[in-house]
Amino acid sequence: MDQVKSSKARTELAATYFAYALRYVYPLLLLPFYGRTLGPAGYGVVLAGMSLSNTIWRFVCFGFPTVGGRDAVHATHDTERAAILSSQMTGRMLLGIPIALCGFGAVALSPALSAHPLLGCTAVLLGLLAAFNLGWYFTSTGRVRRSVMIEIVGFIASLVLIFSFVHRPSDLSLVFPLLLTSALIQTALAYGFVRREFSGWFSSIRAGIELIHRSKTIFIYTSTSILLITASTYVLSVFAPASEVGAFGVAERLIAVALSLTVPATQVLVPKVTYLVGTDPAKANRVSFQILIFFFVGAIGAVACTMLLADWAVPLVMGNGFQHAVTVLKVFVLVLPLNVINQVIVLYFLIPRNRDALLARSGVATACVNIVIAVPLAMHWGAMGMVAARLFGELMLLTVLIVNMTRSGLMGEILSTHPTVLALRPRGEG
């Protein structure tokens, strides 16, 4: 088994981005296909189901991938890795059963999903299955390319199934059963590769509960900030008509495609930065700042391109009936630079340093404000109200993260090892 090595970062990053280029074609193909085949209302229902599925995935994961990946990076023996795997399975199973019941209740609560019970129920099952994904384990044990290969197989399978069986608006109920089928293929491949690395599929219940306890502070952050992002389309489906859900969902999916460009870098570089934090903190900070600058510049470029091209590109790609999505997208795109900064702070500065408590404080403070404003805004202004809530949430999170980092002394610690700061300090100081 390969170990995480910083010397392999460039090779792995290049290979990952090359492979992921195919995966980015996936939403770009399905967005216009769903929009033209199912129409604005039908696509709104699909987006509400995807939002619910992603929310269930977040709840069942409960911060486990972050904690498991961090443990696996530092594991030195096969028995340690086997124990990590089995405790992860048990922890997810303990949470999966009650969350599945809540998911079925959420289907009944949403008018859009309750009108299509097969679609809603399979969306719940898809979220549960996604929570058992092993991508975190492959990347933290130095097998990034294998993880990407499995993802691409799933991408091809789902694309073939959707294009083969979804031809008209009445095929709406088939979408999630087909996606679930492709996810089963992908999951079978992943577990087939690592089946011999398990000493037993499940650990003791005590070990699963201990993992839940260790992951709770990460979950507090993800369930209060990131979770609101994944659940926003579902929340809108409860309070607004399907046409508003469709307009918001199209814009949200396009923004998600842009944000997903950071995923391969995250999978490759987060383990490297985590390793460097323990061996060379100054280099870890330098790499993290370079990542921040690179992605922030890219986000500003994406904002500019969206403002220039959205008026003709969205109707061209999606067809008639999505004009409202253009207005929503032009405001929603402002989320990109804020989200990029927040992601880099969390993934490259806080999590590698085990600052889970700081994350929890930031997430809770943000959620208390976000939850208060998201529901009334969605009720009164539909898609634009939810966009306003998302923008305010990202800005609020950034502010709280910076304040907490400064108060805890982490900001001074990071800046004190940055080359620019060191160059400004008088000789003989420090």
Comma- or semicolon-separated keywords:
430 residues, mainly alpha, disordered C terminus, disordered N terminus
Radius of gyration: 21 Å
Q: Unreliable stretches, pLDDT < 50, 5 or more residues? A: 1-7, 420-430
Shape: globular
What is the first-to-last residue Cα distance?
42 Å
Helix content: over 70%
What would you note in describing this structure?
The protein is mainly α. The protein has one domain. The chain is 84% helix and 0% strand. It is built from 17 helices and no strands. It has helices spanning 9-61, 64-74, 78-109, 111-114, 117-130, 135-140, 144-165, 175-194, 205-239, 242-260, 263-279, 281-318, 323-332, 335-350, 356-408, 410-416, 419-424. Helix 7 packs antiparallel against helix 8 and helix 11 packs antiparallel against helix 12 (281-318). It starts with 8 loop residues before the first helix and ends in a 6-residue tail after the last helix.
Explain briefly what this protein structure is.
This protein has 430 residues and is mostly helical. The chain has helices at residues 9-61, 64-74, 78-109, 111-114, 117-130, 135-140, 144-165, 175-194, 205-239, 242-260, 263-279, 281-318, 323-332, 335-350, 356-408, 410-416, 419-424.
